[in-house]
C-alpha cells in the first residue's frame, strides 16, 4: 500500500493545543501504518511549512510536489510511488481528528469486490439553492447528499491517471467498484480558524 497525506488547504497548518493539523494527521498515519513510508503531497508554496512542522519526527516523510486538489496532477505525481503497490491510501491533512475506527472500516471494506472505498455520513443540515438575488429557489433532498471524508483507499488498477475528475482524490475508471462506509463525526474537515476555535471551546 502507498500511503499519502495530502495538503488540501492552508488549514493543515492551523494549530489546536499547539499541534498543527498536519502533525496530528501525520502521527495518526504513522501509528496505524508503522511499516509504511508516508508521502506528503503539497504545492511548492506549502513545502517549507510541511518540512518545518515535521522536522522533529523520527520517521521523516517523503515529499511530493504537486497540486493535490487536481486529481490527474496528483495521480501523475505519485504514480512512481505506487508502482510496486496494489493500492493507494490518501488522507486529508485538514481532517486531523479522524479516529482509528474510521481507518479500520475503510481497510475492512476493501476486499476483492471493491476498487475504491471511503467514509461518508448523511447530511443533516437543510440545504437551500439561492439565486443571484439570494432568494431561495429550491430545498434539496438531503437523502441525495453525503458528507464525504477520508481516508480514500483506491486499487491502483482502477486509477485512470489522466482521467476526468470524478470526485475522488485520484481519477478512477468508469467501471470501478466503489463503496462507502460509515464515517465518524471526528472526520469532519477543518475549513477555517473558526472551526478550530469551536473545537477548542468544546474541549474546555
Could you characterize the architecture of this molecule?
With 204 residues, the protein is an alpha/beta fold. The chain has a single domain, classed as Spore Coat Polysaccharide Biosynthesis Protein SpsA, Chain A. Helices cover 25% and strands 25% of the residues. The radius of gyration is 17 Å and the shape is globular. The mean pLDDT is 90.
What is the rounded distance between the termini?
38 Å
Q: Superfamily at the CATH H level?
A: Spore Coat Polysaccharide Biosynthesis Protein SpsA, Chain A
CATH structural architecture: Alpha-Beta Complex
Q: Largest sheet, described in full?
A: 8 strands, mixed
> C-alpha Rg, in Å?
17 Å
Q: What's the total number of strands?
A: 12
Given the helix and strand composition, which structural class is it?
Answer: alpha/beta
Order of helices and strands: EEEHEHEHEHEEEEEEH
How many domains in all? 1
Strand content: 15-25%
If you average the pLDDT, what whole number results?
90
For this structure, what is the CATH class?
Alpha Beta
Q: Name the helicity range.
A: 25-40%
Number of helices: 5
Give the CA-based shape.
Answer: globular
Runs in which pLDDT lies below 50 for 5 or more consecutive residues are none
The CATH topology, please? Spore Coat Polysaccharide Biosynthesis Protein SpsA, Chain A
Amino acid at each position: 500500500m502507498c500511503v499519502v497525506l495530502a495538503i488540501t488547504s492552508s488549514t493543515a497548518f492551523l494549530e489546536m493545543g499547539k499541534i498543527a493539523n498536519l502533525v496530528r494527521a501525520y502521527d495518526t498515519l504513522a501509528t496505524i501504518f508503522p511499516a509504511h513510508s508516508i508521502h506528503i503531497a503539497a504545492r511548492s508554496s506549502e513545502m517549507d511549512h510541511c518540512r518545518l512542522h515535521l522536522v522533529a519526527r523520527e520517521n521523516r516523510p517523503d515529499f511530493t510536489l504537486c497540486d493535490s486538489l487536481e486529481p490527474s496532477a496528483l495521480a501523475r505525481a505519485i504514480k512512481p510511488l505506487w508502482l510496486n503497490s496494489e493500492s493507494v491510501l490518501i488522507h486529508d491533512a485538514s481532517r486531523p481528528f479522524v479516529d482509528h475506527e474510521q481507518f479500520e472500516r475503510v481497510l475492512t471494506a476493501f476486499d476483492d469486490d471493491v476498487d475504491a472505498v471511503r467514509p461518508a455520513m448523511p447530511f443533516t443540515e437543510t440545504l437551500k439553492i439561492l439565486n443571484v438575488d439570494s432568494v431561495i429557489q429550491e430545498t434539496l433532498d438531503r437523502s441525495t447528499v453525503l458528507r464525504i471524508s477520508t481516508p480514500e483507499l483506491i486499487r491502483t488498477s482502477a486509477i485512470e491517471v489522466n482521467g476526468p475528475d470524478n470526485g475522488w482524490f485520484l481519477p478512477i475508471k468508469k467501471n470501478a467498484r466503489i463503496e462507502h462506509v460509515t464515517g465518524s463525526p471526528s472526520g469532519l474537515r477543518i475549513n477555517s480558524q473558526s472551526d478550530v476555535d469551536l473545537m477548542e471551546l468544546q474541549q474546555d
